[in-house]
Fold each of these.
Amino acid sequence: MNTNENLSPAAVTSAKVRAVLAGVPQQPTTEQVDRWDATDRPIPFSLTSAAEQLPRRATVSVRGVLVDVQCPSWCVSPHTEKLNFIEDLTHTGEAISLPVRQFDGSVEQVLTAQLVQWPFADKSEPYMSVDADGSGECNEYHGPAGLAFADQLVAHAERIRAEVAKLNGGRS
């Protein structure tokens, strides 16, 4: 389009617009997008695993004073409680439980495990917390002890499979 031409809306025709935009690639139509195979589709947005491992920050209320704390990447606690002492702050991971059906048909969650840390307490290192029976009484497994406990669970599951195989004529 010549810059000396009249640029009023009435003077702009679709032919002139197409001529100016000839060098701009056209966007695909909806029908074209529907025909793309999976390799051509845009990648949906999501956090990468590296980004999910970055620590997050939380603001907690300690006796009415807002305190900024850094959470470990595994912490899922919303930190919305009002604390009396900073030592009461707890980081908690996702709780993992084993559902067990009871004789009456109800399901009880047992062997609930989760990562826990009291970052401002005397013993501030994180550990695996295990509540065996849902009573709220938890055992702490630090470092290699947590892996040893997991190995015991795997061995227990293998023994259960072996017992079930006996019921199925040796097939698991």
Note: The radius of gyration is 30 Å.
Amino acid sequence: MQQQTKPKKSRAQSAYDNLWASPALFVFVSGVVFIVASRRGGDEGDRLAEKAWLVYFAGWAPLILMALWCLIVRRKPDIPAAPIGLFLAVAGGLFHLLLRHESLPF
């Protein structure tokens, strides 16, 4: 009996697959920074909270860039990673907004 091996993914395909889910990392890091900011308090905590928002908003860049790439090359988004990444970005933003709305940078 001969085993069938899956063909190895190219680096571009691996990057494409992983970029859709990358907002999870940004949401997690911004959450950690929010926790540190709440423990520090005062002006330093406020500055850290603003930086946490910037980290969160940076997490939207991979989603937007991958969506534009899919439009340019007329390729369907990766399923299920694209909806999961979008859901995590939106849910993380709403969660942070409920807890730290006063520290929005704008």
Note: Residues 21-103 form one domain.
Amino acid sequence: MNPVTAYGFMKNPAINDPLLPANASRTIFETLASPFERVTLKRSMRLFDASIGLKPGIAGLPSAEVLVHVITGHESHEALVRVLVGAEYQNFRNLVRKVGSQRGDTVKDLSKQTGLTEDNLVALAHGNKDGALVPDLLKLFEVGLGAPVWAFKVFTNHTLNCPSCGKNFFEDVDTSWKAKPLALGKPEYEFAERFLTAILGAILIAVTVMGKQISTTSLELLGSLVDEKQYPIGNWLKLVCKAYGVKTLTELELRLALRKVTDTNGKPISGRRLADWARGTNLISVDNSYCLLAPLGGNDELKMALLAARAFAFVEEFLVAADARPYAPDAALVRQVIKTRLEELNMKLVHGLKIFQTKMIAKSASALPESVA
């Protein structure tokens, strides 16, 4: 489904949202693409500074471009479009921004290059000289974050009061984050919370809706990507080493050389590059990660694990940048905070799924005729 068709589908039909009061409805887009709230950074981010679009000390709305960066590895949706459209990029850009006069066969050529219909291509044209090149594409990435967050909330939308304090077990966002050893404001920890719940929600969707059998990134083992001693991508590379039957990055370098694995530019992947990726000196691109996985048959487990690791890396960097103290918190401390919160969220989801299942069984039983029940 291309961006225009998908966005049109999400924007129009109303759906029943279990998180809303009875008889209330919203469009799919309204349900899944909640806009970011303003957050304030104390210091600049390192690898995601350009894509998040925030300046230290100034409250602002994080750019949706950061979702493109986390998910695809491209720092902006326009950079992604440039790759997808290829040699026809300038013609595509001129068409969308309505710059100059277009040749009669321009739309036909673009249709062949992109796979979009001519009508859909024309519908993308907005004539804005500035701003997002393809706003609908950015909105789809917002839905890409919102859908798993919504799934997580649906399965944890319960009441389970503590017999001692009376607080709802499932409503712990404020109490949990305020107890963590970081100096974060409510907008900042809620922003980080959204990404962590999205990771769990994405696994939930993959397992329950798409029928994926994913062991490495299951709810129980997802925490293996978060270790206070290691950058998340480093933990992911450990999984890659295991898949190749080696134990170290040095051994992985040799194994890659033997299998003639190269990067997207056709160059060998050196041990130094592997080490830089593992430390977070540079962020491994999604395309290069797929080069690593090609001899393994693509490996859907490791692809999903990579996406989770990239999201963890982003949350780690965001929390370091958002901590309000004069000095940046130690990365190991931030990773421990992420791991602890992930475990708490996982526990909420496990209990939520059990309650949801119990409710469904009870609902099914009540619908049976008395003679059957």
Note: The CA atoms of residues 83 and 89 lie 8 Å apart.
Amino acid sequence: MSSGARQPNDLPVGFDADFAHVCVADGTTADLELPFFSDTVRALARTAPHARLEPIGELGAVGGPGQPLLLVFHVGRSGSTLLARAIEALSPVVVLREPEVLTAALRAMRADLLPAPVLPDLVSWFAGFAADRGKALGIKWPSTMSEFAPELLDLFPGASALGIVRDPVAVLRSAAVAPPTTGVPIAELVPTLPQCERLLRDAGHEFDLGSFIVGVWAVAVDAFIRLAGDGRLRIVRYESMIQQWPAVALDVAGWVGDRPTDAGDVARMLHEDQKALDRARSVTSTVPDPGSWAHAEADRLDDLIRPRVQLLAEMT
């Protein structure tokens, strides 16, 4: 596959309905009338004059060898995009930010809809695009994929890993201000996250917004603590990152790569991120008082929160 001039985050890529092909809208001839897995991919593909199909079985040979240098896992609303942008600015890494095609591949692989090598083959393919730009590949996974961090690190044993955490009350408040867009009802999404589902069921909690947010946070923290204890992941606290910006970003970038550059742009990123946050807060909240709702939900879900907060405090 030719990379052309596109950057990895811009690539309109998706599976066909049977997970038999990967479709790439890149100006060559093929049928665009496919039921793409992702609505985003479908919309992007409509803007391209043509697309081509790569059979799944040939993907590895086309992509060639390649491994990610960095995997970024995080809880929701924890500044992961901000830190990913900083890593890109300060190190020889380009970070794919929550690529839907890889998330789809992971889910399909776990459901036995795709053979196990497909996800590594896709990542190898993206690593080729990064290499064309003189960069190593990083992947920032959606927060809901953090429970699979151990599994993903087993697939990519050479990758370094970050786990970004934040105080769960702040995560709840942020979600009340700007609710997560899950694409499907939460009651349908939770069963696709086996550890989160088991945690909530065992604790007797309903599959509602607050439980979903805290459940995803809790299983992510469990994975991060276990991996950090094994020396396989570095935990970064959102609160420290913001209070010590850009020092934490510089430190992480130096840990990831060996070419740190000027920090001026990174300092400006925090200002841009704050402006975006202020805009989000100006939107009408889903609850009358986000702060009160967040504290009430944290009290209700204290059995999931308190022990993990204590463990994080001991580790970080």
Note: Confidence is low (pLDDT under 50) at residues 1-12, 27-45.
